[in-house]
Amino acid sequence: MSATEALGSKPRALSAAQLRSFALLSVLYAALTAAAMVFANVPALAEPKIVVVYGIAILVADLCTAALLGALYRSSGRLALLLLTCAYLYSGVMAGVHMAAYPGALQPQPIFGGEHTVGWLFVAWRGGMAALLLAAVAAASKSMSAPSERLGARLVAACTLTIAAVAILASAAARFEWQGLSADQLAEALNATQWTAFGLCAAALVVIWRKGAFGDSLYLWLGLTLVTMMAGLALSAVSDGPYTVGWHASRASFVIGACLLLAFLLGDFAYEDRRMARAAKVAAYGGAVAVTLGALFVRWFLDPWLGNGVPYITLYGAVAIAVWFGGLGPAVLAMLLGYAVVNVRYVSDLGTVSVNGPAESIALALFTLSCSLIIVLGEAMRRARDRYRISEAQVSERARELARADANKSRFLAVLAHELRNPLAPLRTGLALLRMRAQGDASTAETHEMMERQITQLARLIDDLLDVARIDRGKLELRTQRLPIDQVLRTAIDTAKPNLDAQGHRLEVRYPPERLYVEGDLVRLAQVVSNLLNNAAKFTPPNGHIELSAHAEDKTLVVRVADNGVGIAPEKLREVFDMFVQVEPGAAAAGGLGLGLTLARAIVRRHGGDIEVRSPGRGKGAEVIVRLPLAAAPAAVEVEATAPPLEPAAPERKRVLVVDDNVDAAQTLAACLRMDGHRVESALDGEAALRIAEVLRPDVAFIDLNMPRMDGAEVARRLRVTPWGRSAHLIALTGMGQPDDLTRTREAGFDEHITKPADLKHILRLAAGGAAQRAALHPS
Question: pLDDT above 90 covers what percent of the chain?
Fold first, then answer.
């Protein structure tokens, strides 16, 4: 993300440390201001020309800041940036007007206006700036809905109106005669206006603080600017008049405030965005001029105490700030400008830049050497800063790319698994149909069993893909309960037994001597153990030996799966849990997707446990150890005697509707249901399903979800509003098995949600249940 985008749409988040630093700097500045107030009315240097120094510093800094803010506004369209641009443009132009109206600044007499013009211009300057900053803070979270090509026109219009407002205020201040007001009343009015501006700044600062600077470092720096403005207004208000310590300190505070946001924009944003490069380069030189004049203003103010001694003392800081602003060029400009002004005022007797005698030559050499060291070191630090920030931006962008790639991978896996389920459904149903038709034919039984095993293996691989996608997106749900570990082990053994038997392995199981319990999801924990057993079977040569055991260690349950298989090289042990990794790809038994251990670790960690793999080396077998927190045994529950179950009634012939846009899936399922004795109709889309249902009045309907024109959820909703459809047993038979899909089918009125490829025996049981099963599920 570029700097402009970061500022315009997604502000940089602020840390608690940044907010604390802001508060600390504000408190320190307030303390310095309070200390200066003690000496506010002490007479100081009385030279009108000093107004030109601080006036030009503020004018240059504010216009450069306005230029950068305007460039940012054109890229983002944020209303707050437009208001900030107007605020700084207003302040810069008013600084120029203020100098023109100040007696003795540019000319012995004011260029325009009368005796009181400069006072009213000053309060209009500071009050207008405060009002615009408050408006910008109020609009911090708002954006302007305008086409990007119109933003430039809006910016020009806003700047034109701002300059027009300055012209109107200047004209009014120059022409208005304040008759009937004494000098004291006029001073009180001016002070009241200054304190009003102080209140506006304070209100904006409170909003920034309460909103946490809107999570944007721009407003943190704007808050510091408001602090300096409040300090300047307070010092100016408590001073008895111009040329006091308070008066000089207030102007110094205004200069600091003018440079703060410029420093932020040059240091934190301009280097990142090429669209701002030209404006930033010019602004860096402007900033160098501003800080140099500010440093000269401070040195000039100290004349009564320092005289002509240490004339360069404040310039070193200005050079350091200039190199931080823009590097070598602005720093050299600050050095040359500062030396020229200091030489004319403090060193030369001729009124021009000159070097006379060895003392002045040595002073110049030492000044140049000192500034050169500052520039070299500062430039190195600035480049290191820029490299770090560019590197940080690249790392952040790379992290976002990786996050997007990871999200795309998870979505791809989910879609892939869903698409693979659909063709598996008719394959499994067709295989069951063949077995039903070939009952008693021993010559095909072995082939049918082989095909069933392979389809089951494909279904398991698809389930693994879906589980990985769920884990990556944090959507793997656990239905936890208090479980005896022997139940988990037996369920896992039943799942893995076909693979173990197919390889002729001998499984040795050691259950714990006492009954141990864990808090967990039976299906997921059994999946972990069965994955470990399947891995052991896969990487152990035929007729191998596999051990499964469980025991307690302190408050931890330890489940161990060991084999005498191919083993794992020591350097590969850290890779076994990585996704899609096969540490023994060349082994004869290798296969699968390399997801078993990945899923096992994710599920175990979701249960608060851990898993590790050990192996002495290649050909020496391996063991996997799972550790889970032990749970207390459940309280004993007295079980009431129940009557023996009744013999199930003979299956009843049902009216069944099959809806699926996959022709093979619909036809094979319909054929199996017909062979089971049901009356079956099939439809390939939702509209056809509704027409057939009007005639068939189905007891049971198997409905796919993803169909063109009208999806399965809409079919279910329409069936439910019919008198005969309210009692029908609706079953979603789909390749979609995410939690959102289950919610969707439940809200549509389905009674069951079955994921393809479904077990045909389960489907036949559901078909045989029909309306009676729905009545049991939804009693009236």
Answer: 44
